[in-house]
Amino acid sequence: MTVNHQPTTGELVDPEQLRGAFGTFATGVTVVTVGGQEPHGMTANSFSSVSLDPPLILVCVDRKAVMHDTLHAAGAFGVSVLAAGQEPVARHFANRWRPLGRAQFDTVDWVPGRATGAPLISGALASFECRLWRAYDGGDHSIFVGRLLTVERLSEEEPMLFLRGRFRQIGPDRSEVRT
After folding, report:
1. What is the greatest pairwise CA distance in the chain?
2. Which residues pair with 146 in a beta bridge?
3. What is the DSSP-derived secondary structure letter of residue 6?
4. Model pLDDT for residues 6-51, shown as the tens digit of each residue
């Protein structure tokens, strides 16, 4: 077995190597949204459940992203967990050149959240609405923890995944493959 040198505290880590290593961890894909006068959406794979009691989730947002200050100011947000067939939606909300405000939702099917009014993506596997509970420093990102207000599990379809810099889909279970 070959062991690679691991950097010790104080050594610099190459950002491209770090991005590549982080990319080996498959994640789900979400769209994080805020409502109000200037609604906004952003594709995110830094999403996680935190606690059942109280019910908490988190999203991590780059400090330079439009969503960062928008979410903080809104004090509430929505999260839509995308299904495997929703890659165009993920790409739309990841596109830095899309229109801002309400216009960015013109080409996407969505419904307003019951509790916050945040746009929730139609056809998503699940949706969550949250009140901002806490925000933490996460280096070049902020970690926004939300207390759940609504939860809906909407579909049993397969999830969209992000792995090694690409959108992916789960293949058939080995038990389902016939030889």
Report:
1. 57
2. 57, 132
3. P
4. 555 556 788 888 888 888 877 889 999 999 989 999 999 999 999 9
Please answer whether residues 77 and 34 qualify as being in contact, where contact means their C-beta atoms are separated by less than 8 angstroms.
yes
Name the nearest CA neighbour of 57 among 36, 81, 38.
81
Q: Could you report the per-residue pLDDT of 85-100, keeping only the tens digit for each?
A: 999 999 999 999 999 9
At 75, which amino acid appears? G
CA distance 11 to 9: 6
Closest CA to 89 of 81, 101, 97: 81
Enumerate domains of the chain plus CATH numbers.
27-162 (2.30.110.10)
Residue matched to tokens 């100011």: 73
CA gap 153, 139 in Å, rounded: 32
pTM of the model: 0.87
